[in-house]
Design brief:
- The complex is a heterodimer of chains A (530) and B (331).
- Chain A has 3 domains: 2-142, DNA ligase, ATP-dependent, N-terminal domain (DNA ligase i, domain 1); 205-401, D-amino Acid Aminotransferase, Chain A, domain 1, CATH 3.30.470; 405-529, Nucleic acid-binding proteins (OB fold (Dihydrolipoamide Acetyltransferase, E2P), Beta Barrel), CATH 2.40.50.140.
- Chain A is 36% helix and 24% strand.
- Chain A contains 19 helices and 22 strands.
- In chain A, the strands form 5 sheets. In chain A, strands 4, 5, 6, 7, 8, 9 and 10 form a 7-stranded mixed sheet that branches.
- In chain A, a hairpin with a 2-residue loop joins strand 15 (425-434) and strand 16.
- In chain A, helix 6 runs antiparallel to helix 9.
- The radius of gyration of chain A is 26 Å and the shape is globular.
- Chain B has helices at 52-59, 144-160, 174-181, 193-205, 259-265, 279-289, 301-310, 327-330; strands at residues 4-5, 10-12, 17-19, 27-29, 44-48, 64-67, 73-75, 78-84, 92-98, 101-105, 127-132, 165-168, 189-191, 213-214, 228-231, 248-252, 269-271, 293-299, 314-317.
- Classes of the chains: A alpha+beta (530), B alpha/beta (331).
Chain lengths: 530, 331
């Protein structure tokens, strides 16, 4: 664990990319195969299965630290990370050891086969022989989350450097459902054909937000425009008589959207489509909230299937007749996609996401203004001769979203953040006027600079009216402009509305309290935009 | 009540004086020179001999009397004495006795000996006013020799690569504690003026600090290869620090115990070094006073009070204005 802890420390101590990649590269060159595989797995979101529930861990840690459980529970939100909280409260270790990363993962995997008392013994023994960083990492592995400041992209780059392979090739090889238990270094990294695994998806191509004027992009004729849908990005694979649906986060969503099983009947063997999963009824997308009901469920009850049926709005074709066509121009891929989908019968859940014709940028800008009427967030612009790249790249694809909706609201509650923002007030509740009352309608956590969070934190400390546990009610004084992408009626929220992606877009220090927006303004927005 | 808690600060009616008041008053007893404890605008001040020079430097021409550690002075019907708090050089806890009842206002304190500040002395009392900046069991400081070793190793590895090392530290207290911890054989030690101004005062008082070079506007980084630079946190990432191209950056504070805070600081290294008591330190200090009544001020007050209650103390929260904007930097 010491070698892995050293890698973690090197990565964690810097914010710069180069030293992180260099540290990873050296690690890949230094350690045995099983540790290498686990390192790749961990930094690409493939963690070992959770084998203990956290209440056990919390209880054992509090006991070992000699503190009551309630005190542990109070400290946890301040630290913001369970693994770290445990590592911080434990007394210093009395033993020393240096087992490999794979050894400790083996220990974690062995836990389910043990009796509860033995599990406790194993975990306490581990805590007593690992140093603070080792403990933190062990706890991270135990609790199943492993997001530690290395993006998959950096890890992939380091792996490419260490193996002398191209980065996109490595990216592709690491996609899909492999685990260190099922894969070997040979099968995963050394072998040449990434498509040997039939379920393996291609890396997604992601667009940046267009900040400059579209005129800067050049001639309109070189570009294709589509609506930008507010759904879930998905990659549909039909190979070997099976179908697979992958999310952008490389999660297999096949079982959540059983409708798409029909794709096997309609699409030829060796087809891979990039598109947007949308809840869809009567020729139009349903609000995102409807789709959201489907996301969290592994199995879908009949009622929900009828209420919120999904379709895949297809916008790109990555594989055709078993051939990877990502380096063909967009226009050609689009033509093939259209040929494939246009003739599918009505009622087929695989549909074509239409292009939006335009003659000039001014023309398109006007069309974009109507995005919300078309249930879209804006437009996507794609260069007609562009290949399908992997990852977020500038130049060929842009999202051109409509400006967000905004409302001026009063901050009434504040709560400290956690993790990176543990000793700052960062989580706020906002209200609008209803007569002389302030009615809370949304929370927001982001949008301010670190300096602004620091300023508001000092203010909150001095202007607390009442405390409800971690939440502080503050003097109504500050007005913030809240930006959001959409608004829906909601019975789950007291105010009756739910906002999509709310954030603080401006601190309106210029605006007196009385001039914040009203509940009627909010209701009017609901009627106009939902 | 020997002491009471008012809008202006902690007040002693028997002696008609305030301790570390935050509004102008006639008579102020000051625990130490940090800006949230020693404020401008009091008609008269009383501090330890050791704290006085820095307070004068910071507040200018004020009416300041001094007192030695342990000396008893009668003010009205109160007997007042000052005892080392171990927080920064010159810092004190203030003991107030009225009619046989003893209260101690501890200001800010730490119980570990940093090798520079007068070491913390437990004072027996009936009621104890304590901070709890780090009043959660997740705050357990790295032992002083270990932090010193880490700090020097960081400097040595940078110096070996020819990189400057810049460390952000509050200009009174933390900066000098770092200076005292450094191995001067590694290379030259440079200081920002805000730090050096305090150094000058403390050296004159006889506190042992290594030789330092004040960074003047015309100073060239390349004339001081392998240097370590001590600067206030606000100078890190500013134009001032840009002359030290390629520098490795660090920050020293108790908050560096938390990974999230360390990452938000976006420095290369975070050293867990605090001028406040950690969890064990707070609990030991409180136990050693023998006090039954505990008043908790700035920090994790509600949790810490609940903990003290569960340990059998009669504990209450007191709202003060000691958690200023730079609390994080100073801690």
């Amino acid at each position: 664990m010491k070698r892995f802890a050293a890698l973690f420390t090197q990565i964690d101590q810097t914010t710069k990319t180069l030293p992180k990649v260099a540290a990873l590269k050296t690690y890949f060159e230094d350690v045995p195969e099983d540790d290498r595989l686990w390192c790749i797995a961990l930094f690409s979101g493939r963690r070992p299965k959770r084998t203990l529930t956290t209440p056990y861990l919390r209880g054992w840690a509090a006991e070992k630290a000699g503190i009551p459980l309630w005190l542990f529970e109070e400290a946890y939100p301040v630290v913001g990370d369970l693994a770290e909280t445990i590592a911080l409260v434990l007394p210093p270790p009395t033993q020393e050891s240096d087992h490999s990363l794979s050894h400790w993962i083996g220990v974690i995997k062995s836990l389910p086969s043990l009796e509860e008392a033995e599990r406790k013994e194993v975990v306490l023994a581990a805590w007593d022989e690992l140093d603070p960083t080792g403990r933190f990492l062990f706890n991270k592995l135990l609790t199943g989350g492993f997001r530690v400041g290395v993006s998959q992209k950096l890890m992939t780059r380091a792996l490419a450097q260490a193996t002398g392979q191209d980065e996109p090739v490595i990216t592709h090889k690491l996609m899909g459902s492999w685990t260190p238990e099922t894969a070997t270094w040979q099968s995963l990294i050394d072998e040449d054909d990434p498509a040997a695994d039939l379920s393996r998806p291609y890396p997604f191509y992601l667009a940046y937000q267009l900040d400059e004027e579209p005129e800067d992009l050049g001639v309109p004729a070189d570009w294709q425009a589509e609506w930008k849908w507010d759904g879930i990005r998905g990659q549909l694979i039909v190979r070997g008589g099976e179908h697979h649906l992958w999310s952008r986060g490389e999660e297999l969503m096949t079982d959540r959207f059983p409708e798409l099983a029909q794709a096997r009947d309609f699409l030829p063997e060796g087809t891979v489509i990039d598109g947007e999963v949308l809840a869809w009824a009567d020729g139009a997308p349903l609000p995102f909230a409807q789709l959201q009901k489907r996301i969290g469920r592994k199995s879908v009850p009949k009622k929900l299937l009828a209420e919120a049926p999904v379709v895949l709005h297809s916008y790109d074709l990555l594989e055709f007749a078993g051939e990877d066509i990502r380096d063909r121009p967009m226009a050609e891929r689009r033509a093939r996609l259209e040929a494939l989908i246009t003739d599918l019968p009505e009622g087929c859940p695989v549909q074509l996401s239409p292009t939006v014709p335009f003659a000039s940028w001014a023309d398109l800008a006007q069309t974009r203004e109507g995005s919300r009427d078309n249930h879209a967030e804006g437009l996507m612009l794609k260069r007609k001769d562009s290949p399908y790249l992997s990852g977020r790249k500038k130049g060929d694809w842009w999202k051109w979203k409509v400006d967000p909706l905004v409302i001026d609201a009063v901050m009434i509650y504040a709560q400290a953040g956690h993790g990176r923002r543990a000793n700052l007030f960062t989580d706020f509740t906002f209200a609008v006027w209803k007569g002389n009352d302030l009615v809370p309608f949304t929370k927001a956590y982001s949008g301010l600079t670190d300096a602004e969070f620091k300023e508001i934190t000092a203010w909150v400390k001095k202007n607390t009216l009442q405390r409800f546990g971690p939440v502080r009610q503050v003097t109504p004084h500050h007005v913030f402009e809240i930006a959001f992408e959409g608004i829906q009626a909601s019975s789950r929220h007291k105010s009756g509305v739910a906002l999509r992606f709310p954030r603080m877009s401006r601190w309106r220090k210029d605006k007196p309290l009385a001039e914040a927006n009203t509940f009627d303004d909010l209701t009017e927005m609901l009627e106009t935009y939902s | 009540m020997v002491l009471s808690f008012t809008e202006r600060g902690i007040y002693c009616a028997a002696g008609d004086f305030y301790i570390d008041p935050w509004r102008p008053v006639d008579r102020a007893l000051i625990t130490h020179g940090h800006a949230d404890h020693a404020r401008w605008g009091m008609k008269s001040y009383l501090s330890t001999d050791a704290a006085a020079p820095v307070i004068r430097m910071r507040l200018g021409d004020i009416n300041l009397e001094t007192i030695a550690y342990g000396e008893v002075r009668r003010i009205g019907d109160a007997d007042v004495s000052f005892f080392p708090a171990g927080h920064v050089p010159g810092s004190a806890q203030i003991r107030v006795e009225v009619g046989g009842e003893v209260w101690v206002a501890s200001g800010d304190y730490k119980v570990v000996d940093d090798g520079l500040s007068e070491a913390f002395e437990p004072v027996k009392c009936h009621a104890f006013i304590t901070e709890c900046t780090f009043g959660l069991p997740v705050f357990n400081w790295t032992p002083e020799p270990e932090v010193r070793a880490l700090l020097n190793a960081w400097w040595q590895s940078n110096a070996a690569l020819g990189r400057p090392s810049i460390i952000g530290a509050y200009s009174l207290g933390k900066a000098q504690r770092i200076l005292a911890a450094l191995d001067p054989a590694t290379g030259p030690i440079l200081t920002h003026s805000a730090v050096e101004n305090t150094n000058v005062v403390l050296r004159e008082q006889g506190y042992a600090l290594p030789d330092t070079i004040r960074v003047m506007p015309d100073l060239k980084a390349k004339d001081h290869p392998g240097a370590l630079i001590v600067a206030p946190p606000s100078a890190l990432g500013s134009t001032w620090s840009r002359r030290f191209t390629g520098a490795s950056t660090a920050f020293a504070s108790g908050w560096m115990a938390m990974r999230g805070v360390r990452r938000r600081r976006a420095v290369d290294r975070g050293f867990v070094m605090s001028d406040h008591a950690d969890w064990a330190g707070l609990n030991t200090a409180i136990a050693e006073t023998g006090a039954e009544r505990i008043f908790v001020t700035h920090g994790y007050t509600s949790v810490f009070r609940q903990w003290l209650e569960s340990q059998g103390y009669d504990a209450a929260i007191v709202e003060t204005e000691y958690d200023g904007d730079d609390a994080e930097d100073a801690a």
